[in-house]
Structure formats: structure tokens, C-alpha cells
């Protein structure tokens, strides 16, 4: 259809029609640009940084949302606001399909290049100059994309020839580049400091929309249109591009709403997770920075919603046997890694796990019911192993590389703002589920809050090398200082900022700690026991920085000579003060070497008092029995194990405070766990065998609850060897793994001879007396003070240093025990 004669006469070829604008469409064009910018910023905020394909795909998504929605859609919605002449359809702006398509592709490509440069070099480079250059390149690319799309799209008009004002062109390009530099500079700076909250991201999006809109309307103000033809079709064709732009804009809105929904859901999960039992990974790089996700959070998953406690006294802490089992397993993952599939299937069959997806598995792990007490700890240990395996999959690594369990259970959800009163209506009666209740301390008059619904977190710690750091960064994780991510972490864990800093410092110090089991030498140690509060067993006083060993000083670099061992037998059974007094009473009959040894012995006692300044140590009794620090190495001729002589004592129960901040108390059972967990310990393999005995038959038949044995059969049960246990049991009783904390009615709760983790066995120990007349092994005889040898099944754990010293301590305190020296010591002195 040809144009009407009136239009041709009114707007002849070569004329420039008047230009006017539709105000509401100008505002709509800014909204379109803002929606595209918000989508871009949100996608960029959740991107995976690195060189993997996921990073490329996510940056490509950011480029499409910004280049296609924020720029391209804004341009054509904005140009729809331009009215030429009196609004006749024949002389309005119409566009070539080819130019329109090209103008949509080119800005996406240019933006993609700029974002890849900034994403790759800004985060991963430590040089400030390179980071600044990468931001400049990103800003220039963004500004160039906005500018070229505008003028390329305008040159696609089919019925006009454009005349440009070059000052407006340079001004528009300057606005685009400057606003883009400011926007992306703020974004990457805040994102690198983990300060990129929603308000800051909104500011970035507004500046990006201002860059697009400012450039567009500045360029439009310097553009004149010269008629070179007339459109002979329907005026409705102008709306095709507008409809496409609106559809793309609505798609961007849908993406924004989806991202917002996922964010709110993630916040609810984090808030709920702070009240659950969670497994987290604290991985540090060589400079001490902490591994965090895109949102500045620790990689973690929920083990279970709540650790089931039968009583208020039953607390999941370092003294709990389940925690001690986990502590040992995390130092030898190879003992359980092949059991993970069976554990997962068993948890599915029992209903504790409803999905195998790592991202949603944590939500389906419910707390335990009271009917499951007999297999409670076994189920919790299964959940721990499966959760650890799922975290390893998310980190794209093996279970053996996940790290070691931290030595404490971290309490979360303790922020005062989280303590509130919640009521539940039940038959017109209000029940308090959690309340802001306080205990009144009578002496101080201060109120301390009782926190209900507290969460607990188990932390696997690890120090990553350079290659591991790069691999994790390529997966999208970051290493950040605690100052950068402290706010996010504190909110997610619901702890105070100061508590968080203290926790992270202790995690990092734990990864830096080297095993303190010496390989050689003779040491002098302090073995002081203290009754735990509430008479819940005994605690051991250990160094705060190295709780896996006793306070000790080196007495000699190698083994002691026979004459030196004979001198020490004279101090057997004496208190530390008496030992100091006797070292000063020289008879004058000592040789020069003996005198020097006694002087060194006195000095080392004083050094030990300096390291462990406890009044109870002055009354501790010296034992001349020489004990190996690391058990399980007897008979290894190629290695000279370190040995120790100890001052043994027990503090008064009414003195709980320590006189030095360098010392602390840990449960005796947990100290034994330390001694069984050192690198190369033979107990690793023994525990692995025991785990296979306990968990290998989980799927043979449905899980059942074993009825307790009758009291009349109790002794038969205790003396039954471990190989007589029925092999058709689906889940072996947890034996004494809970020590009565979970199932006090279990018949093995007080069975002293039962195996601690599954099968019940009987072992025997013998003392082998060496005949000095037949074999010249006097030094070995003196060193062992009655050589010990264990006979029994292959998977029997030997006594640790703590157990042997405990036996010596009780023998000193037993009024019926003989005070005479052992026979070998007696003959040695003579």
C-alpha cells in the first residue's frame, strides 16, 4: 500500500519531521533496563568464579540478560517513545530484521568478553594494577556494547537517514563507559569483600540502568531523522519489536522472582540449620584464608535435625563415645569409605534418608525417635559418614581428602536475639516450647540465659596446598579473610561476631598443629587427674595448645643408660617435692656422670613445674616405670620409640580451677582417643576391622531391636567370645559405645570386658620375665620394667599411655597395694 498524497506532500523526501516523545514510554524504557540490570547483577552475584564450563555458562547468562534485556529491549522500548511528525504511521521508525538481529547479538558477545576478564583477573590476581585494569576493560566493554547497540540499531531504520551530533555521540559514550565502570567497580569491590548485600546490589543495578538509559537518551537528543522513504504497510508492524521486548522483560522478571524465592528459601534453611546438628568444612589456604561459598558461607550439610538426648545430663560433647568414634574415623577415612553405600541404603530402608541428592538430602534427615535407642548411635554414625561423603562430592574430592574432625563440638544458635518465647496451643492450654528464661545466680545476682533449641556443628578442618586451592576456586569457591565474611557467617550460625572470630582462629590453629608424638628420646611428664564436675569421670590436665599430649620435658635425647635407670629407681614412690629434696642430698659417692644426671633430673623437674604450675603436682608421685609414649610399636626394631617417666597424681575434687591459662582439662576418655589417633597408629586398622564387623551386615535383614539379656544370663553374655555373635544380625548392638548415655538398660553398659565397638571378645595379658643370666638384655629389661605382651585376637587394641599411667596412679593410691619396688627394680638397685 502506497503512502497517501497528503503525507508525501507534508513530508517530502529529504525533509526532517518534528520529534516529540511519549513520557510514560520513557519511564517504561528505564524500568525495562532496570529489570535487565537487576537480573544481571543477581546472576553475576551467584556465578561460579573460575575457568570451568559452569563459570562460562553463568557469565554467558549474565551477558544475555544485560545485552539482550537491559540494552536491546530498552533501546526498542525507548525508540517506541519517539514520535515523528504528527504521528502518521507511514513516517514512523521501522527497522530492518537483519540489523535488529545483529544488534541483539553483538552487545552480548562484547559484554561476555568484558565480564570474563573481570571475573578471571579481579578475584584471582593479587596485584592491584591487574585488578584495576580488569575493571577498566570490563567497564569499557560494557560502555562500548551499549553505544554500538544504540547506533547499530538506529542504522537499521528502513525509511530514514540519520544525522548525528558528534558532541552528543561522545557524551553518550562517556556516560555509558563511566556509569558502567562505576557499577561494575562497586560490584566487584563489594563482592570481593563480601559486602554485597541486596541494597548494594540494587545500587549497582540502578547505575547500570542509568548507564543504558543515559546513553540512549543523550544519543537520541543529538540525532535527526531525514526522510528517505515511506512505509507502505500497516502501522501494527511497529509493535512486533515491542512485543518481543516485553516478552524478554517478563522472562527477566520471572528469573528475578525465582532468584528471590531461592534466596528466601536459603535463608530459612540457614536459620533452621543453626538449630540442627551440622557437619561443616573449614579449609584454609597457605595464608590462613577460609574457604567459603559464593555467599560467604562454609560448605556444610545437616546431619540430623536434633541429637537425641535421653536426659539433660546426656550431652553430645567430647566425652561422648559417639564423638570419639567420629574423631577417630575422620583420621582414617579409608576404614569406612567402602561402607558408605551400605550405610546409605540402610538409612533409606529405615526412613532416616529419603533422597540421594546431596542438595536436598539434609532436609530429609529427621531426628531420632525414642524407639531407636538400641541402634541410636549406630544410626547417627551412619548419617555422619553419609553426610561427609555428600560434602566430598560437592567439593569434587574424595572422602580421604575431606580433613580431620575438630576437637570440639561447636554450639550454634546462641545469639541473644534468637532466644524468644514460643507458645503452642493445645486444648486451650499454652505450652512453652522455647523461652527466654534465666537462671539466677545467688552469689553474683546475675542472670544467665537458658538457650533452648541450640544447634551443634561438627567441623572438618584441613589446610589446602596451592593445587587444591586452584581446584576449589575453579569449582566456584573462594578463600576469604574472616573480616570479609564474618557478618554472613555470624548470621548463618547465629553466633556473635567475637565468638566467630575466636572459633575460626582455633580452627586455623588446629590445622597448623603438628602431631606431638615424639619419635625418640626420654621425657619427664606430669600426669595429673581431676574429677570432672558432677562426678562425671576424670579429666586430664594437658597443654592448651597441644591437648593430645601430657605436659612434659625432655630428659635425654636417647635411651638412658643402666646406671641412670638405677638412679631413677631410688625416686620411685616419692613425691615431686621429695624428689627435689633428694637430688640435693648427694652422698659424694656418685660418679661424675651420675652427679651430672641428678643435676639434670632436678632441672627438668623444675622445668616441668614451670610448664605445669599446679599445686597438686608438688604432691604427685614419681614412677620409675618407663612407659612408651606411643603404644603398638613394641617389637619394631627399626624404630627407637620415645619413652616417659611420669609424676602421677589426682587433684582434690573441690579445687576445679587451674593455676595457668596454658593448661586445660579434657576428659580422660577423649585423651585416650587422641592417643589412638596419631598418624601411623595400629588402632586405625583395628577400628576399620571393627567397623566392618558392625556395619557390613546392615542390609541382610530388616533392622530389629535386640531385647536386653536377662540378668541370669548376664555373665554368659559378658564372657561370650566375639566370633560367637550371630552373623544374621542386621545391626550389631552398639555395645558400650554409648557407655550407658543412650541405652542405659543395655546389658553391656557396665560390661567391663566387652569390646568397645561391636564384637565382644576376651583378651589376656602376660608378663614375660627375662632371664638376665641367659641373655645380656639388662638394658631392655630395665627399660620395660617387666616387659608387657598382649595375647589375644588380632583386633584387640593395646593399652594407651593414659591407661598405663592410670594403672600406676591407682596403684600408688591403693592402701592395700604393696609399696615394695618391682622385683626387677629391686635387683637393679642392688
How would you describe this structure to a colleague?
With 830 residues, the protein is of the alpha+beta class. It folds into 4 domains: 20-267, no CATH class; 272-512, no CATH class; 522-667, no CATH class; 702-803 and 822-829, no CATH class. Helix content is 44%, strand content 14%. The chain contains 24 helices and 23 strands. The strands form 8 sheets. Strands 16, 17, 18, 19, 20 and 21 form a 6-stranded mixed β-sheet that branches. Strands 5, 7, 8, 9 and 14 form a 5-stranded mixed β-sheet that branches. It has a two-stranded antiparallel sheet with strand order 1-2. Helix 5 packs across helix 6, helix 5 (128-154) crosses helix 7 and helix 9 (321-329) packs parallel to helix 19. Mean pLDDT is 75; it is low at 356-363, 367-374, 416-453, 634-639, 701-794 and 817-830.
